[in-house]
């Protein structure tokens, strides 16, 4: 047994706790959070504006009384119960809400426990569906370059194999089929048509092996914050239908209003939809996979007859209760106006940064603002500069970006823009 001597908590953290994408032997600095409220975090004793919404999940900010009450009330009943053979009102209520607010064909709901797991489940559904309708040889997924779908193994296999974060695992992952990255949002019909021609050619070439198509619709997230035209989604739907493929939309980052649409799936309806992140307003880990009755029947026709997945914390009551409260809170307010206000203010505030040395692009979509550099960001220096300006940011690769809570005030947005500028100049 290891004896741990009481000491500075940050010293213990540095010696014993891994953080995301961080070395254990040469860790970069972490900051101690001791409080959170509204759109602000108390970091190392100072209150700063959170530009990340805790990796895009805390859309209502922190310590929202409605969400606090939902968790407290459910904890007073029971915090967890296995979902195998049992059910409960929080899960039933959340399932009902999800069916009501997503496109009509999506009426079967699988409650997973994280975004990556929801993608794993979706890919299992695709494969089991193809087996269930008599096409077991269809085992590969078609996707596009520049995507990111999570850190578990099947998720890594559909993440960009060269420019993504998982290139070191290439020889161990299932070999999927990759089409070019879609053209940039705002591209003309000629660029979209050229991309579509290439995509169709690849689908034609591999159609006998393909089971489904998976993409992040309209905005690629952690792969590079890349927005692309809605017309590309219609092409994907057509290709899927032509070849008998299931179309999967990974809306873990884009769902619940982030792009200006409640769900991008309102524009083009997929066969399977993955949701997460903002689902619980950032309170607890939870994800959902929605699919159609036709897909469910296909899965039931496979040799297993059931979806071969069942997490211990599937349908966790605390998470389901706060997710329902978060959805009601979102739909009961002016989320569209808030997203539009954030996007407009970010677009105006970030535009001058195009003139800074090293900046190659500034782009916005919905409540997302992105500054792209011509070099990898010095994350430590950029973070220090942003904190000095009163803002918490977490740059990555060549990007300094923000996806703030929807409840952020205009003065906080102005401070956020200043923090982004400071990070760009330092990074």
From TrEMBL:
User: Which cofactors, if any, are listed as required?
Assistant: pyridoxal 5'-phosphate
PROSITE patterns, A to Z: AA_TRANSFER_CLASS_3
Q: Per UniProt, where does pyridoxal 5'-phosphate bind?
A: 115-116, 250, 311-312
Q: In which pathway does it act?
A: Cofactor biosynthesis; biotin biosynthesis; 7,8-diaminononanoate from 8-amino-7-oxononanoate (SAM route): step 1/1
Do you know which NCBIfam families this protein is assigned to?
bioA, PRK05964.1
Sequence similarity: Belongs to the class-III pyridoxal-phosphate-dependent aminotransferase family. BioA subfamily.
Output this protein's name.
Adenosylmethionine-8-amino-7-oxononanoate aminotransferase
The lineage is: Bacteria, Bacillati, Actinomycetota, Actinomycetes, Propionibacteriales
* Gene name linked to the record: bioA
């Amino acid at each position: 047994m290891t004896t741990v001597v009481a000491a500075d908590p940050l010293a213990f953290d540095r010696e014993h706790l891994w953080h995301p994408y961080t070395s254990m032997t040469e860790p970069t600095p972490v900051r101690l959070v001791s409080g959170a409220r509204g759109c602000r975090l108390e970091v190392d004793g100072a209150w700063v504006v959170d530009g990340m919404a805790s990796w895009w999940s805390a859309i209502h900010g922190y310590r929202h009384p409605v969400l606090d009450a939902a968790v407290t009330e459910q904890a007073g009943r029971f915090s967890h119960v296995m979902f195998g053979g049992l059910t409960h009102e929080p899960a039933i209520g959340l399932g009902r809400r999800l069916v009501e607010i997503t496109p009509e064909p999506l009426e079967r709901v699988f409650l997973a426990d994280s975004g990556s797991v929801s993608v794993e489940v979706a890919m299992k559904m695709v494969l089991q569906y193809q087996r269930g309708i008599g096409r077991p040889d269809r085992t590969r997924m078609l996707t596009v370059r520049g995507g990111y779908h999570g850190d578990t193994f099947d998720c890594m296999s559909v993440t960009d194999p060269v420019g993504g974060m998982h290139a070191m695992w290439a020889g161990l992952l299932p070999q999927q089929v990759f089409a070019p990255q879609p053209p940039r949002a705002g591209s003309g019909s000629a660029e979209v048509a050229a991309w579509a021609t290439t995509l169709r050619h690849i689908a034609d070439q591999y159609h006998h092996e393909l089971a489904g198509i998976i993409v992040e619709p309209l905005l690629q997230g952690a792969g590079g914050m890349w927005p692309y035209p809605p017309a590309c989604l219609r092409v994907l739907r057509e290709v899927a239908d032509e070849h008998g493929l299931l179309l999967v939309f990974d809306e873990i980052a884009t769902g619940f209003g982030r792009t200006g649409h409640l769900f991008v799936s309102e524009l083009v309806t997929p066969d399977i939809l993955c949701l997460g992140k903002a689902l619980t307003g950032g309170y607890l880990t939870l994800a959902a996979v929605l699919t159609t009755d036709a897909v469910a029947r296909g899965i039931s026709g496979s040799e297993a007859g059931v979806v071969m997945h069942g997490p211990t914390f599937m349908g966790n009551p605390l998470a389901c209760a706060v997710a329902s409260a978060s959805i009601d809170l979102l739909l009961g307010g002016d989320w569209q106006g808030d997203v539009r206000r954030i996007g407009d203010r970010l677009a105006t505030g970030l535009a001058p940064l195009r003139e800074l040395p090293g900046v190659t692009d500034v782009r916005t979509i919905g409540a997302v603002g992105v500054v792209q550099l011509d070099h990898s960001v010095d994350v430590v220096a950029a973070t220090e500069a942003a904190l000095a300006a009163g803002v918490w940011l977490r740059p990555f690769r060549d990007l300094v970006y923000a996806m703030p809570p929807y409840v952020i005030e205009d003065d906080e947005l102005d401070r956020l823009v200043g923090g982004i500028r400071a990070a760009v100049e330092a990074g």
